[in-house]
Write a structure and sequence with these properties.
Layout (H helix, E strand, L loop, with lengths): L1 H12 L32 H13 L1 H4 L38 H10 L14 H11 L5 H4 L18 H18 L12 H11 L16 E2 L5 E2 L15 H10 L15 H20 L20
Antiparallel strand pairs: 1-2
The structure holds heme C (2 copies).
Length: about 300
């Protein structure tokens, strides 16, 4: 680390002496003075120091000064801000439970997590986002003990670039995979009646599938932080990790760390993973399009047209 510290100080020796904090106005991209302590640590390198400043200004209010998710706003929020000291992350293009890559964290920062209080940080510069990502990785020892997960390979979309008919058949197939092959409704809701599921089972020649009696609603689960978590009700809740078909492929294939949402990458055929992505997108699109060509069979009390947030 000593070598990196020296490296961080290098600009002070050159023409950019103003960037060492001697000027009354310190630009956002100036390195911190080495004496400035961050969350109990010395400044170790320039991006982390700059990231610490971005973090203190924009993130600590929710995620906490120490990154433990206990910022002053946290008690009012549901879901709670991530505890970065745990080294456990939800959204990444790697198998769930493994550390995200920088690009995963950058994507989350750029887009935010719609439907939660985590905003988009598109108004920060890319350099500020990179710096705060570097800083986040100083908050848990997991980052020195493990490497980020290997990216989940994204296969070519077998339905991509084809006409409406092909997309319709993707959605149809996805509906069968959702209800019969992968039984996603065990946590999420079912969007077909038992009779329809019976017909799908007959066509698929698969073992019988019996929907749980309250399958019109998602089944509450508990997350790794011991808090109740409602699996997404697709026509009602917003998607946190992007709502394009490609985003959905990545979410479904990778799973969601710290939650019951499993990694499906090797559990389903590639074509079926894509079909599911089209189907879930068709459900999510109902939020703004209203019920579309796919019949909605929801039980009493749930209204697919409600916008949820
Ligand atoms: C208004 C509150 C709020 C602020 C401000 C905020 N966050 Fe968040 N953040 C959240 C919440 C809530 C979540 C968790 C959402 C969830 O679990 O679904 C979250 C999640 C995240 C995640 C996702 C981690 C994962 O598990 O995939 C990252 C990364 C993140 N925040 C980084 C930041 C950074 C960096 C900043 C400052 C630039 C910031 N956040 C500012 C509320 C906030
Ligand atoms: C064992 C429970 C469980 C099963 C089975 C399950 N999920 Fe999930 N899923 C969850 C939970 C919990 C969340 C909510 C995570 C959150 O909001 O933080 C979720 C979230 C999602 C999301 C939304 C992520 C976002 O961007 O907000 C998608 C898409 C999804 N699941 C698809 C599927 C599909 C498709 C299947 C079947 C192949 C499936 N899930 C099976 C528990 C499950």
């Amino acid at each position: 680390m000593r070598a990196r510290l020296l490296f961080a100080l290098a600009p002070c020796l050159g023409a950019a002496a103003w960037s060492c904090g001697v000027a009354p106005f310190v630009p956002a991209d100036a390195p911190l003075r080495p004496s400035e302590a961050l969350a109990g640590r010395g400044v170790e390198s320039q991006p982390e120091a700059r990231g610490a400043r971005v973090y203190a200004e924009y993130c600590a209010g929710c995620h906490g000064e120490k990154g433990d998710g206990q910022g002053p706003a946290a008690r009012f929020l549901d879901p709670k801000p991530r505890d970065f000291t745990s080294g456990l992350f939800k959204f990444a293009g790697v198998p769930s439970g493994q550390l995200p890559r920088d690009e995963d964290l950058m994507r989350t920062l750029l887009r935010g997590l719609p439907g939660s209080s985590m905003p988009s940080w598109a108004l920060l510069s890319e350099g500020e986002r990179r710096a705060v990502v570097a800083y986040l990785k100083t908050l848990s020892p997991a980052w020195t003990a493990q490497r980020p997960g290997a990216p989940v390979a994204v296969s070519e979309d077998p339905y991509g670039g084809r006409g409406d008919g092909e997309i319709r058949s993707a959605i149809e197939r996805g509906r069968v995979v959702y209800h019969v092959v992968a039984t996603c409704w065990q946590c999420h809701a079912a969007y077909a009646s038992q009779e329809e599921v019976d017909r799908m089972v007959a066509a698929e020649k698969s073992d019988p599938v019996t929907l749980r009696s309250n399958a019109g609603r998602p089944e509450m689960v508990t997350d790794a932080w011991d808090r109740p978590l409602q699996p997404t009700d697709f026509p009602v809740n917003r998607l946190k990790n992007g709502s394009g078909v490609g985003d959905l492929y990545l979410t479904i294939a990778s799973g969601i760390g710290g939650t019951a949402m499993p990694t499906w990458k090797d559990g389903l055929e590639e074509k079926d993973l894509w079909a599911l992505s089209y189907y879930v997108k068709s459900l999510a699109d109902r939020r703004w399009r209203g019920p579309n060509a796919i019949p909605s069979v929801r039980r009493a009390g749930a209204d697919p047209q409600r916008t949820g947030d």
